[in-house]
Amino acid sequence: MLTLVLDNQDFMVLNKPSGMPMHDSENAIIRVAESLFNYQKLWLIHRLDTDTSGCILLAKTKQAASELSKQFAEKNVQKYYIAVIDSKPKKKQGTIKGDMKKARNGDWKLSTSQVNPAITQFFSFSLPNTTIETAIHSGLQTPPEPTIKSAQSPAIRLCMVKPISGKTHQIRVALKSLGSPIVGDKRYKGTPSDRLYLHSYVLQFAYKNEIYNATCLPEAGVLFACNLNSFFSQNSDPRTMQWPTHKA
Question: How is domain 3-240 classified at the architecture level of CATH?
């Protein structure tokens, strides 16, 4: 179910569930939102992958859609995501930068060229007492088989991610390039689980000379629910983190 997070006379921010598509379906986010909130027409300002959850911005008027879309096009919107991985990345924090190239079967891959690069900044945090097995055994939920790798499966890590650009599958490919695909990411060979563990956590944007902030907590997912409350209480605002300075 869509949850209303921020409501303005010209736009709304919703918490999108994993599995809801953007287009071409009776369950697409625009159709569901128009019906749920009783609007004849809403405008989609940006996109999330079907299996990615979290903050999504919709405009209520054509004029607002134009202004907000411009903010995204000019990279003036600050976007922060959280992702769960269970393989130690090649580096614990930093910037991942490279051109996105099409691969087989709709996949993308990161190249070393820098013509029009995807730029992704991230921090990763170890959660040593939480593995996929302990999450399953907590009784919260039973993900589909085969989730458990072995009795020695590594502890999961939580990544706070800030994409500077907005390319298709950018975060998923960036983390895969570090040897750490996102848990539940079937396309990029992440460990099978109950969902894709990628979530749009915070949006910050300007509209009519005012700054708006929207925060969406994950509402589903055994690994988000298991032992992560303490993390969110200590790292609740990614805007205060010491992100690398980006040079265009």
Answer: 2-Layer Sandwich (3.30)
